Amino acid sequence: MSRYEEAKKIYAALGTDAGKAIEKLSDVTISVHCWQGDDVTGFDSGEALSGGIQTTGNYPGRARTPEELMADIDKTFSLIPGKKKLNLHACYAIFDGENPGRDKIRPEHFAKWVQFAKERNMGIDFNPTFFSHPMVKDNLTLSSPDEEVRKYWVEHGKACIRISEYFARETGVPCVMNIWIPDGYKDIPADRIGPRARFKKSLDEILGIDYDKSLVYVTLESKVFGIGLESYTVGSAEFCLSYSTKNGITPLMDNGHYHPTEMVSDKISSLLLFNDKIALHVTRPVRWDSDHVVLFDDETKEIAKEIVRNDALDRVFIATDYFDASINRISAWVTGVRSVQKALLYALLEPSSLKELQNDADFTSLMVKQEELKTAPFGDVWEEFLRVSGTPADYLTEIKKYENEVMVKRA
Ligand code: RNT
Ligand code: ZN
């Protein structure tokens, strides 16, 4: 008997069907962020990364051109099992001629990405880029008191909705367009409501354009603070959640965007009760919103359990969001996405009988059963998932080879 067959029996005795878990996981799409490949640099502005987010490290091999990034995405995706979608930022526009500015970017500036996605049979998600740009004034964009600045970014938001529609039409897969602004203040503000009122107005203006809501899902990502923006963030949790609920868009939670003892895993159920869809940025905050590579750790497992237990795999847009420049970037990419998938598989292997133990107030058995599951032969089921999806279990050898043959040559 193979290790997987043995494992299947053990899980059956625990009350779950490992074969069904693999089948379900094969159907889950992960929206993979493109920005791990080049340290969130993009191609459109030549500006340093701003907005209170930071990539650290200078491991060799950063993708410097669209061609290099596409090649790295291909290598990365070949080592990730299951269904994928490509998550782009507006700063990854590819200009053949002149750069018209972020307020005037058009679908044609993403034609090469569409071709790339179509050839690989996948959809595209999108993000307007409200950072790393000279029009970010005093750390403000959509909430700026300078009307010229605010309007510029409103136009950017509208342009991005058009591009998102184009992605959806071309690929045949709806596009999730996520709005996140870095706007905030380093020190104690004198007016907290003013910037939020302007942000609200800006969002109203962006969403006021006529767009096809079956093609574009607009999501809104909140944040607690950023580097240099420690005292006040315009797009706080309360703001973003209230705005989303009131305006029928989708809330997005990034698990690096809350106070350290606040857990996104605990928030998912509440949001599911009040929203048709919700969106996630899965990351790993270490002491702050550090965007470390996602690992198969407790909180990632707990987030996955909440999605699976609540039967919400088709209601949660799962995207990754991390950037590590201190290790091989492709390995970072693959490890992070595989960790999310491992967590989902782990959750899919949880027996539903645990809920009954909770309702029967049998917390003794609940604790023992939960601990028992931790040492069940999960790895053998994961390896079977890799096998059926035709992905090698060992990705390190392949990546080291690519590093030597391709990445180190990028001087
Ligand atoms: C920043 C947010 C945001 C970005 C990306 C690049 O704190 O998490 O999602 O990471 O848009
Ligand atoms: Zn995020």
Question: Please, could you describe this protein's structure?
Answer:
This protein has 411 residues and is an alpha/beta fold. It has one domain: TIM Barrel (Alpha-Beta Barrel), CATH 3.20.20. It is 43% helix and 11% strand. It has 14 helices and 10 strands. Strands 4-6-8-9-10 form a 5-stranded parallel beta sheet. Helix 8 links the parallel strand 8 and strand 9. The model has no long low-confidence stretch (mean pLDDT 98). Bound molecules: L-rhamnitol (RNT) and zinc ion. The site of zinc ion (ZN) has 4 residues, from loops.
Any idea what the shape is?
Answer: globular
CATH T-level fold name: TIM Barrel
The first-to-last residue Cα distance is 50 Å
Instruction: Compute the number of strand runs.
Output: 10
What does the average pLDDT come to? Answer: 98
Rg, alpha carbons: 22 Å
Order of helices and strands: HHEHEHEHEEHEEHEHEHEHHHHH
Number of helices: 14
Q: What share of residues are in beta strands?
A: 5-15%
Percent of residues in helices comes to 40-55%
- Strands of the biggest beta sheet: in what spatial order? 4-6-8-9-10
Number of domains: 1
Summarize the structure.
This protein has 411 residues and is α/β, with parallel strands linked by helices.
Secondary structure topology:
Elements (H helix, E strand, L loop, with lengths): L2 H12 L3 H9 L2 E5 L32 H13 L4 E7 L21 H9 L4 E4 L19 H25 L3 E5 L4 E2 L7 H15 L8 E6 L10 E2 L3 H11 L2 E5 L9 H11 L3 E5 L15 H12 L6 E5 L8 H20 L4 H7 L3 H12 L3 H11 L7 H10 L6
Parallel strand pairs: 1-2, 2-3, 4-6, 6-8, 8-9, 9-10
Antiparallel strand pairs: 5-7
Helix pairs in contact: 1-13, 2-10, 2-13, 3-10, 5-6, 8-9, 9-10
The site of zinc ion (ZN) has 4 residues, from loops.
